[in-house]
Amino acid sequence: MNAEVYIAKTDEHGNKKWVRYEVPCASSDRVAQVLRYIYEHIDGDIAYRPCFCKRGSCGLCMMVVNGKCVKTCLAAVIPVMHIEPLPLPVIRDLVVEFPDRR
Q1: What separation, in Å, do the N-terminal and C-terminal C-alpha atoms of the chain show?
Q2: For 11-29, what is each residue's pLDDT tens digit?
């Protein structure tokens, strides 16, 4: 299966633009795996938080996929995905600044 992935990237002025990627994947893959594939094989310049826990416990991989906030380490791939950052201050591309929890 191939997934058509649109990622919200930011330019040097912080403006968002959609970039399209065609990604080979299995129906059992997760969104985090698709992002890793794009980074390692297509666009090494994309900024995102890699998934470390792989079980949904930390929440650092959360993004908006097709309008829903999801943990990318748990969310299954679908044929067409629009991936954008959470509605928080964007550092770059899909990386956001989380609120201080002190």
Answers
A1: 44
A2: 888 788 999 999 999 989 9
